[in-house]
Amino acid sequence: MKITVVKDESNELIIDFDTSDYTIPDLIASQLQQNDDVEFAGVAKEHPEVGRPRLVIKTGKKKAKDALEKALKQLDETISELKASIPAKGK
Fold it and tell me: Which residue segment(s) compose the domain that 63 sits in?
């Protein structure tokens, strides 16, 4: 999945996703919302036939990129835990 950084400032990051599927951007925004350093995290949603998901992150004192990296790491850990809990094939 390709992304395009639309705005990259210390306390604000806007990323467009080259997909019509909102699942991943919504998942990232949800994880970001659990971070106390994040003032706003959401996905702008347009009609799927004309728009693409746009993730908007705004932070207070911390850098928006750092908050995004932290959220992605937490999601990676959660997904790894889920994968480990799936029974092996044939069991």
Answer: 3-85
